[in-house]
Structure formats: structure tokens, C-alpha cells
Amino acid sequence: MKILIKLGGTLIDESSSRASLASQIADVCGAGHQVVVVHGGGRQVTRFLEERGISSNFVNGLRVTTPATLDAVLKVLAGSVNQELVASLMGAGTLAVGLSGIDAGMVRAEQMDPGLGAVGRVTSARSALLDLLTEAGYLPVVACVAGDGAGQLFNINADQMAVACAAAFRADRLLFLTDVPGVLDSDGSVISRLTPESIRALIDSGVARGGMHAKLTAAAQALQDGVGSIHILPGSAPSVIARLLDGEHLGTTVGRALNQVTA
Known about the structure:
The protein is α/β, with parallel strands linked by helices. The chain has one domain: Carbamate kinase (3-Layer(aba) Sandwich). 38% of the residues lie in helices and 23% in strands. The protein is built from eight helices and 14 strands. The protein has helices spanning 15-30, 42-50, 67-91, 128-135, 158-169, 196-205, 210-224, 240-245; strands spanning 2-7, 34-39, 58-59, 62-63, 96-100, 107-111, 120-125, 139-143, 145-147, 153-155, 173-178, 193-194, 229-234, 252-254. It has an eight-stranded mixed β-sheet, with helices on both faces. The chain starts with a strand and ends in a 9-residue tail after the last strand. The relative contact order is 0.15.
């Protein structure tokens, strides 16, 4: 099975959480699955900027990316965060390889909106490098930076990067591991199952805001792009990946219709 796992930056900020997730991912690889990891690192980038007196601004969950912010994204997200995660995954027994969308033109992007600065919209993704590595037993670990092929670099929302890579990789399952128990309704209860229509209702009603707005938009795009199964999961839950793959329903599952959604 081909599995793409997106790790939220909050989950990998602490070494203990990072090690736990690395161990789980190593078990999935050891079971014979082809796995790609895409990771965020927003908390780490914000902290880096704050230490330098630079504030962060967001629009619909997307970080406005000035030249100083892009420099931080490259140094932190594609640098220290990526390599710390690779080291943890190596320590767990995998052959992890740190990458970004820039490498081999794996993900190409264009500017999304001049008002957002160097925030990119993915225009294409190629699976050749991911296929080559996973078929040889390696574990690609992808930071959310991409280029336009002409030297311009862009900060890519991690959920959108995960969707682009999952679609290109032809992933059977896309797992979003987050710091929340799943998608929450207006009462704060986890919504077990969602469709594109119910996602739109959550966004239009204002219940899904900020980062969850971006995540649900990405999940709906993943369905459209042919990703087999999408799950938004509590990343801190014990053995969450193995439990899901064993058939336990956790978090929120997204499908085209309620009666077509499977755990």
C-alpha cells in the first residue's frame, strides 16, 4: 500500500513526540508499505521569527510570506525541522531522506496572491523521485518549499503540499496527523465523517477557520485528485497509525459520499 503521512509541526516540535511518531512510521515501513512523509513546522518558524522581532500574519490559515519570512522558512522548515525529523526516523530504523519540493523539480508552484507575498500555489507535482526512493526502500521526508523552475522559491502550505505529493504518488491513503482529535463541529465534538459538501458548509458557516479551513480545502482537493482515502487524525493518540490501518475508526474520515466513506 502507498501511504502519505502529513505531520503537523506542533507534533514534531518536541523530541519525545517526534521519536514516538518516528517509531510508528518505522513500523509501517517495516510492514512493507511504501511511505512518504510531508511535514509542517509553522510553530518553529513563528518562534524563529519572534526571536528576531518579526511578527507573523495569516490569511485563511496561510502565512503571509515576506522576504524575511521566506528566509526563515528555508532555514527552519527545510533546514533544522526537516533534518531533526530525518534523524529521528533514522534512529527508529528507517532509511529516511530529507527533501523539499525544490529537489529534482518534484513540486512546481506559482505565486498564489501578491498580497500573501511568496506563498505558492502548486501547479504540478512529479512522482518520479518519490517512486524511485520508496521502491528502493527509502523514506522520503518532504519539507514544504517549492520553486517555479526559474529560480523563484515559494512557501507552500503543508496540507496543500501533502495533497499534491499524495496525488502524484498515487497514494492509497493520506493521513493528516494533527494536534486536535479531528474536525470539530460548532459544539466542539469530533465529526466522524465528511464529504465535500459538508466541508463547504463548515467553511461557509465559519466553523472551520484558519488552519482547519486550509486543511479541509486540501482534503477536498485530494478527493478530486483521486487520493483513495483521507483521514484527519489525533497525532498524539497511542499507536494511531497502526490502529487506523487495522480498521479502527479514529478522528475524521473524508469521502465523496457518506455511504462511500470507509475507515
